[in-house]
Amino acid sequence: xxLNIAVVSGGDSGExxxxxxxxxxxxxxxxxxQYKVYPIIIKGREWVHECPNNSVYTxxxxxxxxxxxxxxxxxxxxxxxxxxxxxxxxxxxGYFDMLGIPYTxxxxxxxxxxxxxxxxxxxxxxxxxxxxxxxxxxxxxEISPQKILNQLALPLFVKPNNGGSSVGMSKIKxxxxxxxxxxxxxxxxxxxxxxxxxxxxxxxxxxxxxQGKVIKFPILEIISKKEFFDFEAKYDPGLAEEIVPAQIPExxxxxxxxxxxxxxxQLNCKGVVRFDYIYNDKGMYFLEVNTVPGLTESSLIPKMxxxxxxxxxxxxxxxxxxxxx
Length: 325
Description:
Elements (H helix, E strand, L loop, with lengths): L2 E8 L5 H14 L5 E9 L2 E5 L5 E5 L4 E4 L2 E3 L3 E4 L10 H9 L8 H8 L1 H10 L3 E2 L2 E5 L6 H7 L4 E5 L9 E3 L5 H9 L4 E6 L4 E10 L2 E4 L3 E5 L6 H5 L4 E4 L6 H17 L6 E8 L2 E8 L9 H9 L3 H13 L1
Parallel strand pairs: 1-2, 1-7, 8-18
Antiparallel strand pairs: 2-3, 3-4, 4-5, 5-6, 9-12, 10-11, 10-12, 13-14, 13-15, 13-17, 15-16, 17-18
């Protein structure tokens, strides 16, 4: 008997459209012989399932079910494809935990910690990872640009502390641009992270587990044709080159995989998770964790999975199987 799987996408962040595309890919590649798939789009309080015939059904949030005519649909598992809030910051996870419905991502605590870039940097630093020097700004505590520049050296990255896909992010080379960059980031979040720029090569590693075995995807290197790997570069194939497996020294390749696998366990991750770094001759600097990484066919995790020899149908099946396990 086929399992009922809800593929949830959308959300309430600037990553809404990318999340919708991820959800479409998951729906397309989940094995129809094993799963009956119900795409569900959430935006604010509107949670709906739209059928191929354009009929729209509202999700009953009391038990996360659908009433389709005389038939009530309960779900065996939820595939979370919401990038940003509420799918990557622990909110949906807490909701599904209360309902006792399995889901494909990290749990509430891990999602909350890793979504907050500043807190995550503190945690992984305690685990031995190297991170760039940084300052956290909040709307309630103002720090003057000059005070920031007294503590951190240009160039700087200014970004929303909670968010992804580089939405609201700026690279600052001169002091005069700092105030505007902070205002831009505050439009996306209540907190802003300012980090020193680390010169080097950007690499990323995907990790998941299957039946107790850690699967370490090949390292992928990102070579952006823009100033940095921003939102536009991430989703325009002409603006970045993504090389997998990365053409980097073997010891760096292995170190990146082993560090990512170690952090996956130390952070108590579940599902497929992506770890991003910058490496240079001084070491490998941790950037961030993506607990609900992009799953479009042009996204990084699908490219790493293909290089590993795993199809999207296989990977998505593993994620559902592990969630239910």
